[in-house]
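In response to reviewer comment 3 from the previous cycle, which asked for concrete evidence that the modeling workflow produces usable outputs, we include below a single protein chain processed end to end. The sequence was submitted unchanged, and the resulting structure tokens are shown without manual editing.
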Amino acid sequence: MDTATELATLRNMVDATRQLAHFAIKKMEGRESEMQKRFEVDGRKLNSMYWIIAHMAWAENNLIIRSIGGANPEVPWLKHFALGKSADDGENCGVPYSEIYAGFKKVHQVAMETLDKMNPDDLNSENLLNWEILGGKTKRNTIMHHVRHENNHIGQMLWLVNLHGVKTI
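The workflow returned the following structure tokens.
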């Protein structure tokens, strides 16, 4: 496959994955006050919808925008949801859910603009964060990992939606 077609396919996968995330989030409409609820299973606290949505924004900012070289989306709370940060740090950062959701959408918009402007020949270039993912440091690898990462968290969100007593199908 030529790189232009590959980049277009990856871009469409990034956007389609985010549409699936919105499917899970929309199931919780009218329950925004419950977005920070953390369920416990066998003595382990699960991350809340709030935390997962914010973490997905942090991840997209890094795996797409920063690794490729896009514009800063100017979302100051992202740092509270970084890899390795405790769920409690994010849950207690004081940002209302409405701002988390707005930032989630803003980061995705900037990520899509970044992918739209990306030169397909840069898929093989080293990502700007120097992260090794999928056995390499290419921008292609960070984009592919973003899709995998986001889908994992969407699965978690759909379980949480069910734990909130909301049907997903």
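The chain has one domain: 7-27+54-163. We consider this sufficient to address the reviewer's concern, and the full set will be provided in the supplementary archive.
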